[in-house]
Structure formats: C-alpha cells, structure tokens
Amino acid sequence: MDFFERQHQAKKKTGWLIFLFFVAVLFIGLLNFFLIGMSLSLNSAYEGEGDYTRFQDPVLAGIVLLATFGIIALAGLFRKFQLREGGSSIAAMMDGRLVNMGTRDPDERKLLNVVEEMAIASGVPMPEVYVMDQENGINAFAAGFTVDDAVIGVTNGCMRMLSRDELQGVVAHEFSHILNQDMRLNLRLVAVIFGLVVLAELGRIFLHIGSSSSRSRSRNSEGSGGGIALIGLILMATSGLGILMGKMIKSAVSRQREYLADSSAVQFTRNPAGLSGALKKIGAAGAVLHSPKASEASHMFFGNALKKSWFSFTSTHPPLLERIQLLEPSFDGDFSGLKFEQRQVPPESSSTMPPHQTTQAGLSIPGLGQAIPPVIGAVAVEAAASAVRGGPSSEHVDFATALLRSLPEKVRGAAHDTYDSCALIYALMLDKKDEVVRGEQLEIVQNAFGDQMANTSGGLFDEVLALDPRAKLPVAELAVSSLRRLAQEQYECFINVLEALAAADEQIDLFEYSLSKLVIRHLEPHFENRSQTAAQIYSLKRLGSECHLLLSGLAHAAGDEFEVVVKAYQSGKAILADEVETDAQPMDQFDLDALDQALTTLAACGPKQKTKLIEAAAATVSADGYLQIQEAELLRAIADSLGCPIPPLAIELDEAA
C-alpha cells in the first residue's frame, strides 16, 4: 500500500469514526429522551394527572437531543483544545519525560539511536522521544497530528528490558502509525471518548447533588432533589452505555491498524524475530499501564495497555498470541522460558550502534563497510517511483544505519544541540568553492548571532564538506528536532540568516533550495501556528501553469543542455497528459521563486492528484536513466512540500559529486 493509498484509507476511517460517533450520540440522546419521558409520565400518573404524552413531545425530544449532543461535543472540543500541541500533549498526559539528546544513559542512547535510524529511513524529521519512568510494563506509542508534531513514547520497561533488535521492531511499528496517517485519527478518538466520559461524570455530579439535596431537605415538603438525582442516574446509565459504544468504536477502527503496523515493521527491519521477541516479552512481563489516563489513550499503544476485559470485542488490540504466530507460526504460546536482563553497561563502553556488518553488495559510505545498493541506469526510474510511493524498506534502514555510523561525532553532537544545530545548518549553506563568498556568509552569521555562532559554523564547515553528499539532507532533518526548541525571536533570526546565506552569492543552487525548503517547512508549523489546510483541489485541469513550472524546474535540474531539458520535461508531461494540458516546451530558465509559488498551490491538491504529480516529478528527474545527487535532493524537497515524505534515495556517486 503506497503513501497516498494509506492517506485515502485514513480519511475513510475518519469518516467512519464520525459516522459511528453521531450514531452513538443519537442513540444516547434518544435513550435519554425515552427515560426522561418515562420518568415524567410516571410522575404525572403518581400525582393523578395521567399525562402519558411526554413520549410524543417534540420540544422535549429536541431539548434532550440537543443537550446530549451539546455536552458531548463541547467536552470533545475542550479535549481537542487541550491536545492542540499534538504528540507532546499526549506525552504530558501520560507523564512522559522528554529524553535529553545528550544523555549518557546507555539505554536512552540506544533508544534515541533507533528512533534516529527510523526517522532517516522514513524521510521525516526526528520526533521527540519520551520515556514514562513510572511504567514498568513493556509498551510504546506514537502520537501527533502530523510528522511535524509527532512524538515517540516508550515505557521504562520497554526501554530497559528489550534488546536492540526488539526495540527496533517496536519503534518501526510506531513509525508505521506515523506514516500510515493513524496519529490524527487516534487523537480524534481521544476527544470523542472524553466527551462520552464527561457525560457520565456530569450524571454522577447530578446524582450527588440530588441525593445531598434530598437528605438536607427531607423534612421540607416544598421540594427535594429527587428530580436532579433521577436525571443524574439516567445520564450515568446512558453514558455508561455510550462509553461501551465508544470502546467498540475504538476497537472497530484500531485493531486492523495493528496488523498493518506489525507487517510494516517487519518490512522496514527485515527482522520478524525482533518484533515477535518484543511481543513475547509482553506476554511474560505484561504491557498494562498504571496511569489513570491509560484508558483514554489505550488505542495508541503497541500492546494492550489495559487489564484483560471480559468483553473481548472492546479490545483495541488483536490477541497477543495471534500477533506472534503471524510472525512466528511455530510459537506454542509458552512465555515461561523468556529471560529478562537489565543491562547495566557503563556509558563509556556502551554502544548505541548495531554490530558492524555488510549486508549487500554496493557502495559503502566512507569509513564503513555497511553497503548501500547503488541506483544506476534504468533502475533509477523504478527506484524513484518506488521511494515516493512505497515508503521505507529494509534497504532504507540499512542506509540509515550506515549513515549514522559514518557521521563524525562533532556533526552528530551539533545536530543534538539547540544552539549548535543552527551552526550546523549554516555550515551546510556555506559556499563550497568561493572563499570570498564564504567569508561574507560568516560575517552575516556573526552580525546576527555573534562571534561564537560564526566560529562554530566555520568550525563545522570542514566536517560537513567531508560528508558523503547523500548524508547532508538527512543530517539537516536530524537537526530540525533540536531547532524546534529555539525561542520565537531566535527562530525568526535563524530564518532571516538562512535566507541571507542562500542569497549571498546572488544565486540559489539546487542544494541550497532543497535544504532551506526542507528546514523551513518543518519549522513553520511549530513557530507560526498555521492551520493545516484541508485538500481542496481535486482536479489538475486548471493548474496547467503550476504543473508547467514544476516540470520545468525539475527538467532544468536534470541537465544543462537544452535537448536534455526538453527530454526530461516531456517525460514528466507524458505522466500528466490525461490530467492537465501543459506547455509544449519547458521554460527557458530555472526560476526557483516561481517553483516555490507553484508548490504552495499544488500542496492543496487531493491524494490522487499528488500521486500523479509525484510520479511526473520522478519521471522528469530520471528521464536520462540516472539520478544525480541534486536531482534526488530536489525530488525529496518537492515531495516533502506536497506533504509526502519519502526516504533518501541511495544513488550512485560519480566523480563530479
């Protein structure tokens, strides 16, 4: 299943959730009306009036239905507002502790390294990582509205008791939820269930008030709180049924996603034993959480976070044994032989990286034997299309592992530090050939941030210059996580300097464009609080000009000779022929500003239209059968701008690179 199909399925599930929610609310409202009408009729009969028309009163029905819907909806909106920060809100709700990127704890370093690998392999910025220190069961979750506010959370038991391979399987499972667009749906489920819970709590409050009032006024014949208590009792009864329905809703939309996430995790890691080992340890040690908020977020977790219920149809997860046997058919369900070792490795001797190994023939990142399959010849076209549609594979995880092992400690440390991550991005933007321009750029940094930032940027320049060219954008993605911790004023200054560095040589090359586009896109949602615009364009017919700009820009990236540019343009145009009519020839010059404006418009397209755009982009840059570094970087930046993160393309380097 490709990215856009996953997006389509997530949208269908959201529609299904909304439908089920309204059915549940309507049912609860009608039940409230029935019980209240029956109570009023019985009270009327008791007083001798004999009025049984309450069941036919449309005004009462409307009031009860609107009140029921209003209470649930307002409570849900309130919860949604509380969770507006995305994944970090869920982490705080579950008492998670943000893991310091500079930690010396060996298990925390192992966890961070595994998350970094999966982030690079997936082509997304590294999410923040939280540990629930008070939870000793084995469990984990991914939460957020988008990849830009996503977090990974693990229990203390998950981090301490799992081996690296097992932890990698769990993290890969959670990244599957990120890439499969499950997180937004999960947050909506939290808001829906909270609305139903609030109705029950309101009933309990009414019952308490009514009971207290009745006791205090029992000797007064002029009134009592019996009516209030009765309403409270009705609300508790109907909302209790509503909560059960809410659990059924969670089960209906989440169980199949767990199967998909398990299979995706095996696809990512090529190691079913790692994931099955983690599930076996859950069978032995448990995954139950003790947090009072566990019920609200139970559908987000890797394993069943709640105690076993008599009602299996409300479980948000498939049976544990069934999940294990899908990965390891020979397993008989015996967890007694599992051993748990609390690893107490001194930080100085701990290793966060897997043992050195060479898995495939191909190119090695300098300093490592880890092989990376090259992409050459006609294979480039297929590889580009596969990367944009298929998501990360085991080869991308191998690439990420090798890349991290190749990074100098100075570069990796800078990516983990808020201040130094600014200098790292600036170092990547410094001119590689012209010392005069580079000096002017460092002066821009100095004027904005002072001598220390300029010196740090200059000190990192030689390090980034020696990096494998394929590592530069992934390094920038690692730095984005640290850059999100800038103050608002620092962010604004950082962006101004970034744009000034790009313009210092009076021309913006493809790498500068790709780097700045990627960094700014993933920082803007955090600092500028722009609302996510829903897809509004479901046809490319009126976007011929924007498609022309997109294909022209990519065609100019494919080569300098006019014949090469025309061939590349025509390759992309052929993909869009059934969707939109574009110009016969590409633009004479490459206009990055025009391309930027076109991408802003095209980002509002629906999934099917984005599918065609990405396929056309891949065909354009791969028209000559070879995918160069600058082409791959521009393709990733454009796909990212369209809301479709793609893994790094492991391409063959030539001497010019």
Structural class: mainly alpha
Q: Alpha-carbon distance between the termini?
A: 34 Å
Whole-angstrom Rg: 29 Å
The chain-level mean pLDDT equals: 79
Q: What percent of the residues sit in helical stretches (DSSP H or I)?
A: 55-70%
Strand content: under 5%
Whole-number tally of structural domains: 4
Shape: globular
Task: Show the helix and strand layout.
Blueprint (H helix, E strand, L loop, with lengths): L2 H44 L11 H25 L4 H7 L3 E2 L7 H17 L5 E5 L7 E4 L7 E5 H6 L2 H16 L2 H35 L9 H44 L2 H14 L8 H4 L22 H8 L35 E2 L6 E2 L6 H12 L3 H13 L2 H7 L2 H12 L5 H15 L1 H15 L6 H12 L4 H16 L6 H19 L15 H15 L3 H15 L15 H11 L4 H15 L7 H13 L16
Parallel strand pairs: 2-4
Antiparallel strand pairs: 1-2, 3-4, 5-6
Helix pairs in contact: 1-2, 1-7, 1-8, 1-24, 2-7, 4-6, 4-13, 6-8, 6-9, 7-8, 9-11, 12-24, 14-15, 14-18, 15-17, 15-18, 15-19, 16-17, 16-19, 18-20, 19-20, 20-25, 21-22, 21-23, 21-24, 22-24, 24-25
